[in-house]
Structure formats: C-alpha cells, structure tokens
Design brief:
Blueprint (H helix, E strand, L loop, with lengths): L2 H14 L3 E3 L2 H6 L8 H8 L9 E3 L12 E6 L13 E10 L2 E10 L4 H4 L13 E9 L3 E6 L2 E5 L2 E8 L22 E6 L15 E6 L11 E16 L8 H10 L10 E2 L8 E17 L2 E8 L6 E7 L8 H7 L11 H4 L5 E11 L5 E10 L3 E4 L2 E13 L7 E11 L14 E2 L1
Antiparallel strand pairs: 1-2, 3-4, 4-5, 5-6, 6-9, 7-8, 9-10, 10-11, 11-12, 12-14, 13-14, 14-15, 16-17, 17-18, 18-20, 19-20, 20-21, 21-22
C-alpha cells in the first residue's frame, strides 16, 4: 500500500495504452488503498461518463514521477465529450494524497479557449455572455476541501465537480465599485468558484447546469448611512426546479424579497422555463446573480444582506431574512430603522402580542446615483398563537413597517396582517383540515 505502487500501476497502464491511465476504485484498491464507497459514481457524474466508460487521463508526452512525501502529481489532458471538451482544450493536473489506507485526490482541469457556450449553448444572454471572468477551470475533489490553493489564491471545494475562475468588477459589475472604499482597482481579480453539475444537461429539457458560485470581495465597504455593512460578495446560482406537485411553496417573505427586487422587469427573457405541456414534471431554471454583504444588527449579530443584481438599474433593494441562530432584539430593529421605535405605531392593546416577536425580513432601497437610502422596510411577527375564543384562533400576527427617506424622517407607512382560523369545523380545506384566513 503506497503511492509508489499506484505510480507503478499508472506507468504500466500508460505503456500499454498509448499514454492513457484509468482512475477508478479498482485501481486504487489494487494499490492497497481503501477508496470511498461512492467514488465511481462520483467520477461518472462529475466527468459525464457514459456507457460504463472509464475516467482516463492522457499522459502522452509526460512522465509519471515518483511521489514526493505523501503526494503524487500527474499531468496530462482529458476530454468530456458530452459537453464538447476535447483534449486540445485542457491541461490537467491530478494530485493524490495518502493518509494511511485512505486516499483523496483533486483533478484540476484548465479550460483552454473555452467559454460557457462551448459546453452549454444556452448559457448566453444575461448574466452569462458578458460576465467578466477569465482563467476558467474545472476542479474535481473527492472530498470537501477548505482553503485549496488555486492560481495563488485560496478557494473552497465541494465534493464532486467545481468551477473556478477570476472575476473583475467591470462590464455590468462596474457599479459595485461605488460600494467599496477608495483604492479598489477594476483590474483586481476576485476568485469566483463553487460546485457545478455537468451530467444532467441535455439541451432539450435541462438547458443549464446547476451551479452555486461565490466570489468574496476582499475590501472594506463605504458606509451606507447609519447601517454597518461589510464583507461584500457576488453569488451566481442556477437551480433546477421540478414541479411535481410536491414542491414546497416559497415562504411569503421570500416572495416579498423577490417581488421587491424584481429583476424580471428588466431582463424578462432570462427565466428559462423549459416546459412542454405534455411533460411531467415541469422544469424551470432561473439564473440569479446576487450582490450581497454582511449587515451588523447588534453585538455579534451579522446577517447576509443581499439583492438580485440587475443591469441598467438606478435603484437597488437589498434584503435580509430571519436566521434562527441570530435572534434580534427590539433595540436591534430600532437601530436598523434609523432609531425609530416601532412600538409608537402599535396600539397598546396589540403591543402585548409583539413583546416577544420574530424578526422576519428587513429591506433597504438605495439610489445608485448617490448611494442614499430611499426607503427602509421591516416585518416582525408574534410568536405562538392567540385564541380569542374557542372557534377563533390567530395563528400569526405581523407588523409591516416602511420608513421613507429615513435621513429626513419623511414619513412612515405601516399595516398589520394576520393568519387565523375561524369556526374550523365549518370552514375547511378540501382535505378536511381547518381553513386559514388571511387579513
């Protein structure tokens, strides 16, 4: 059991197969290692292997060296035919690390003369076609890896296939620089990375790969009036939603956040709804590019504060929702709302139901022209239920508060909403459960 044995096996393979070596659980077992149970499944999905094909690296023209310490490094090329990647488009470095009988490895694939549409024809238009990225790589890992060294930068890898590149704040991302403290250069490269699912794209029903990429902007932010913000980031997400009738509904506050940002008014063609009226279940894929930051809401309380980034917009609505492990106090909320006390707007009779409250959503609308705060909005809700009498139970009671032009305290708008059961034996849902009323 050693990397030396594994190197010998690879040399034998290369000598008999025109430089090609095969990597799977059998090879690692023959070298004396105990590979992870799902390795072959992981390789098949990550490299789009079809018809029981083996994962191979072409090492022609390269020598397979002896291991150094507990690592073995092999270079070569690969092809991924399903997504139009040929050996001529790749440069591969595979690094194997042994720990006793266990072995892990990373396969880093540099993509040469490659762009999104090379492999995914439908990754065009906003936000893909003019996304200012360079140096694209696929990076396969057999396990989650924090602080992996890539192109002199540190990135985080998820088990399976990942994408890595460098991003600059140019093109439609240029306005983000106005959020940053002076000194940021538009040519500064931001590592932009995260998992990607390659094998499910068929260009008929599934048009885009699922992905979740993030870039941390390592720079101090400009203050946003009285709000304390920091740790800016960009995040690109594509998630395939299959509506088979069991999909969980959006939380109403998530819907509100999406409605407030509403990028569809500007890019209506970017929701990719691949539905055929005869297909079940229906498939929907929506690429969303987020700009976010941390929002300090109290001592040791920092919330993700983010928005869907859309081009050619003069305003930006940034939102945060509640986090169970970061409960806010009444004073936290008052500080977020420019020091205004929400209890001043609530009749004393109702205040008792908000003495213990749940923070649900907070939004800020900014002008991108001068970075001023145009509007603040917060929603808080009661905890538990309130039974007025035997056949009338209030399940949820919310206070929704909007403060316009908070710098001049130019006026507040507030309203109450509730969810309740009324004579549940009379008003029922089709399945017999008590009907719910919204007011």
């Amino acid at each position: 059991m050693s990397l030396t044995t594994l190197a010998d096996i690879f040399r034998t393979q290369a000598a008999s197969s025109d430089g090609y070596i095969t990597l799977d659980s059998t090879v690692l077992t023959n070298a004396g290692f105990l590979p992870q149970d799902d390795l072959d499944v992981l390789l098949t999905a990550s490299f789009c292997l079809e018809n029981n094909a083996d994962f191979q690296i072409n090492t022609s023209g390269q020598s397979i060296p002896d291991p150094v310490g507990n690592t073995l490094t092999i270079t070569g090329t690969i092809s991924i035919g399903k997504i139009s990647i040929t050996e001529a488009n790749t440069s591969v470095t595979a690094v194997f690390t042994e720990e006793g009988t266990a072995i892990s490895f990373v396969v880093q694939t540099k993509l040469i003369n490659w762009q999104f549409t090379t492999s995914f024809p439908y990754m065009n238009g906003y936000p893909f076609s003019t996304l200012p990225y360079t140096d694209p790589y696929f990076v396969f890992a057999t396990e989650d890896t924090a602080d992996y060294s890539w192109n002199t930068q540190k990135i985080h890898l998820k088990e399976g296939q990942n994408f890595a590149s460098n991003l600059t704040l140019t093109s439609y991302l240029q306005p983000i620089i106005s959020f940053l403290a002076p000194g940021w250069s538009s040519s500064t490269k931001i590592p932009f990375f995260g998992p990607i699912t390659l094998n499910e794209v068929d260009n008929e029903v599934i048009l885009l790969p699922d992905l979740d990429w993030k870039g941390i902007i390592d720079w101090k932010m400009q203050p946003l009036s009285f709000l304390t913000v920091g740790s800016p980031f960009l995040r690109l997400v594509v998630e395939t939603l299959k509506d088979d009738g069991t999909t969980e509904d959006f939380d109403e506050y998530e819907v509100k956040q999406l409605r407030d940002t509403d990028p569809s008014k500007e890019e209506p063609d970017e929701n990719i709804d691949n539905n055929d009226e005869n297909d079940e279940p229906a498939i929907e894929q929506t690429p969303n590019l987020y700009f976010g930051m941390s929002l300090t809401a109290g001592t040791d309380i920092q919330l993700d504060f983010s928005t869907i980034w859309s081009k050619n917009s003069s305003t930006l609505t940034i939102a945060t929702t509640s986090s169970p492990d970061k409960p806010l106090t009444a004073m936290n909320l008052i500080n977020l709302m420019a020091g205004q006390n929400y209890l001043a707007f609530i009749p004393p009779t109702l205040q008792q139901f908000l003495q213990v409250f749940t923070f649900k959503v907070f939004t800020t609308t900014l002008s991108l022209n001068d970075m001023s705060i145009m509007r603040l909005s917060a929603t808080i809700g009661s905890t538990g239920t309130w039974q007025l009498f035997s056949d009338f139970t209030i399940n949820e009671f919310n206070f929704v508060w909007t403060l316009n032009n908070p710098s001049s305290l130019n006026g507040s708008l507030y309203y109450f909403e509730s969810e309740f059961e009324f004579f549940p034996t009379v008003f029922k849902n089709a399945d017999g459960t008590p009907g719910l009323f919204l007011y």
